Amino acid sequence: MSAVNRAAVEAVLRQYTDPYLNQDPVSAGCVRSIDIQGDRVSVQLALGYAAGLFKSGWSQMLQMAIEGLDGVASARVEITSVIAAHKAQAQIPGLANVKNVVAVASGKGGVGKSTTAANLALALAREGARVGILDADIYGPSQGIMFGIAEGTRPKIKDQKWFVPIESHGVEVMSMAFLTDDNTPMVWRGPMVSGALLQLVTQTAWGDLDYLVIDMPPGTGDIQLTLAQKVPVAGAVIVTTPQDLALLDARKGVEMFRKVNIPVLGVVENMAVHICSNCGHAEHLFGEGGGVKLAEQYGVELLASLPLSMVIREQADGGKPTVIAEPDSQIAMVYQELARHVGARIVLQEALSPAMPNISVSDD
């Protein structure tokens, strides 16, 4: 039996690709330590994204691979998630206690953006991250309902200037709906709305969050542009349906974020297919393959494709979105995949961003 060494262990790790980082653990810089004591090997990996439901299976796969090495009697692979703060737009200060801000946006209303934002936040929390969600859809706030927060609930005030977010399902929630009457429409002009939203963002006493998900208003107008220019966003997720009209508006959303130098992490396609509850027939009511075309056109990833499902709507309306109501369901697993892809894309965007050039001055 030959003695095992670090190079042999790394060679085994290089054979396995992290499905979210699209790299092997060594190339991705995830290896923290490799300890070899005779025929026993201990490896520690640190992922830069929340992956609580993925770590166990990934660990077992790598452990079995290492134990297949000649000279190894037993192996142990420990995997942790270490979520760092990633850079946002230049010259925009970060939010206190918030590492990464993720904007969930859509070019038009009615495509399931708020439902996606709620399930994304819950899925990130289920993966082990500390998460908050800000309902910035000021004309149609719905996160309070989706998180089961009773009508009339008001946030506490801290030190006479901070709103204390309301916690529900392990997520910190803040919404303009908590400060107004649910039955009173917000008849405000753009600048008033923008100012109110910025106040909510900057004057909410968020806990130590790994991710703050912002449910953006639909469209690409003044409110969206102000938020994009004033809030430090690590990346944006564009939600659309396969319908041609929705895709047209979604393209405008992608272009808007690119103009303000916010990375588009990918596209979520909602209502992709309807499965008849009686006969099981699959029908593409809003068209087929639209999300894929949009992702390909802009060179971004199709993060998730979700069906047109009455269950998703009923669970969100009932204050328990799918990730909480049916955590082991197929749809919930799609949202978990979405959460891991979003976290990993933020890590990859930072790695892909060009470094600042070195400037040298000579007397010539």
Keyword list:
Rossmann fold; elongated; GMP Synthetase, Chain A, domain 3; 3-stranded mixed sheet; 11 helices; 8-stranded mixed sheet; 364 residues; alpha/beta; disordered C terminus
Describe this structure as you would to a colleague:
With 364 residues, the chain is α/β, with parallel strands linked by helices. The protein is 33% helix and 21% strand. It has an eight-stranded mixed beta sheet with strand order 8-9-5-10-4-11-12-15, with helices on both faces. Strands 1-2-3 form a three-stranded mixed beta sheet, covered by helices on one side. Strand 11 (235-240), helix 7 and strand 12 (264-269) form a beta-alpha-beta unit. The chain is elongated. The termini are far apart. The relative contact order is 0.15.
Blueprint of the fold:
Elements: H1 6-13, E1 31-37, E2 40-47, H2 55-67, E3 74-81, E4 98-105, H3 113-126, E5 131-135, H4 143-146, E6 156-158, E7 162-164, E8 166-168, E9 171-175, H5 190-202, E10 209-215, H6 222-230, E11 235-240, H7 244-259, E12 264-269, E13 274-275, E14 282-283, H8 290-298, E15 302-305, H9 310-317, H10 322-325, H11 330-352
Parallel strand pairs: 2-3, 4-10, 4-11, 5-9, 5-10, 11-12, 12-15
Antiparallel strand pairs: 1-2, 6-7, 8-9, 13-14
Helix pairs in contact: 3-11, 5-6, 7-8
